[in-house]
Every structure is written in C-alpha cells, then in structure tokens.
Amino acid sequence: MARRRERAERNDGREERARRTKAKIRRVAGELIVAKGIDATTVDEIAAAARIAKGTFYLHFRSKEDLILEYAHRRLEHVRSVLPEILMLGSTRKALRKVVEVVVKGKDWHPDIVKLVVLKIAASFDRLRAIDLRNTLLPVIELGVARGELRRDIELPILASFVADTIYCGLRNWGMGLSGDDLDRAIDHAVDLAYDAVRARPEPTPRARR
Asked: Which pTM was predicted?
C-alpha cells in the first residue's frame, strides 16, 4: 500500500514538472516569435531560452507550428467549457461572435501571436480535427435553426462547416494584413458575413390567382 502511494506521488510529481516545462516552452517561444517572427525563430533558440534540451522540446511539441496550433486548441477547449453560457446569449449572431472571440482573443496573447494562430489554423484547416471549429459551432447552429434564425433547408454539419470556413477566411485576411481592420472589427465582419449568408429568409408570398 505504501509503495503504491509512493509511486502515485512520484507520478504526480513528474506530471507537474512536465506541465511546468510545457508552460515555460510556450511562454519563451511566444516571446521569441513576437520578437523575431516564427520563421526566424528556431527550436534551438526556444530550447536555449527555456533552459531545456532540444529533445525535451520535442517531447512536448512536434514542431513550432504545433506549438502555435496548441494555443488555438486550448482556446477551443475553453469554448466547450463555457458553451452553455454562450448558448444563453439570446441570439445566434451574438453566440457566434462570442465563440470566435474566445478562440482568437486569448487574454494574455500578443496581437502577433493571434495573427499567427489565425494563419496557421487557416493553412492547416483541412487536416485539423482536434481543434475543429466546425464541431464546436454545431450546438450554436442547431439552436439557431430551432429558433428560426437560420436556414432549415441545409443539413446542420454542412451549415456549421460553411460558417466556420467563412469566418476563417475573413480572419485569415486580417491575419495577412489585407483588411486594414483591428481584431474586433475583423471578428465583426467575419461573423456578419457568415451569419448573413445562412440566416433564415422569409417565405415567398404566394401570388394571388387572377
């Protein structure tokens, strides 16, 4: 019994050290990438700044790109945890905006990190599954259809996929510096574009017979 407890305590200690190491890698990598750009920042530099072996970096991340994508993954996990509150916002447009805002506006993120996250997600969109905004949006879309705010003639997964693709495209343009907007306006424009495309249309009035 005592040995089992000792093993459990050692495992807990290892997990805590791994968690702290990973957090440190994220922090120093973010600082380097903001200062130098992602292409000019090497894994060797990240490891040196974090005071770890290069192999330790690869125990936690497969590449610099995976490190950046993990930022978005963590934000989507947070969205899922607060989704019940988001669904109570009263309108589908507000709920969509809140989801996007939570994903791309980490409270302690530098604006350049936000742009990198947006661009890396857009570039990797087809192969991403763990940080799939489409699945995250499904409950919002489903509720919007049930409320009569969104179109009923398109299957829910297709509707959610279209909304996610449209929002990503809008934010990608912002990340590339093509829109000239600040982040809040870029989110508004991306969400408006997606929402206006899928909102419910009034039924056509039947023509009166002569």
From this structure: 0.70
- From CA 100, how far away is CA 127, in angstroms rounded? 20
Provide the token pair at 102: 């939570």
Give domain 63-202's CATH number out of 1.20.1740.10, 1.10.760.10, 1.10.268.10, 1.10.357.10.
Answer: 1.10.357.10
Q: What angle do CA 117, 39, 31 make, to 5 degrees?
A: 65
Give me the chain's average pLDDT, please. Answer: 81
- For residue 117, give both structure tokens: 């996250």
Query: Residue 86 in contact with residue 95, Cβ under 8 Å?
Result: yes
Whole-number CA gyration radius for the chain? 21
Residues (pLDDT < 70) of the chain are: 1-12, 106-112, 120-131, 178-180, 203-210
CATH annotation of 1-61: 1.10.10.60
Helix residue ranges per DSSP H, 51-110: 54-60, 64-86, 92-104
Each residue's pLDDT tens digit, 121-171: 666 555 454 347 788 889 999 999 999 999 999 999 999 989 988 888 888
Sign of the alpha-carbon torsion through 72, 115, 100, 166: negative
